[in-house]
Give the backbone structure.
Amino acid sequence: MNTLSITVDIEDWYHIPSVTGSPFSVYKDVNEFFKGWKGRYDYLTEPTKRVLDMLDEFDINATFFVVADVVEHYPRLVESIVERGHEIGCHGLHHACKIDPKTKEPLMSVKEFEERTLEAKEMLERVCKQMFKLTNAAIHKKIFSSNS
Ligand SMILES: [Zn+2]
């Protein structure tokens, strides 16, 4: 038996440091970015769907490390990953730099890092728990309807 571990990062081009999340970013943060860009593109949904289809084809489960703000900006994307039986991992709240690349100084305190990580974890857990409940409801309905 062969074992294969696959992880996928779910992040978008606006997560790179030159766009958001660093001292030299064009936009202060992800929210400022979306004020100008929301609805103008979607480079994340279709490529993720293709990856999910490929994983289905080979009957492979993967872990998807998701930047939590994806939940807000791509409402059905994380749900579609969970629905297909994959594990969700946390890839931070906004993919922000924690250390200044030039000065090597911290860009946030330990407390702020912990708060952001906890917020990200909670955002992702809400989607996963909601999907778990929906999946259970679907299973119960199927069992109920097959017994009747
Ligand atoms: Zn990343």
About this structure: The CA atoms of residues 45 and 77 lie 6 Å apart. The first strand starts at residue 7 and ends at 10. Residues 9, 11, 91, 95 surround zinc ion (CB under 6 Å). Residues 7-147 form one domain.
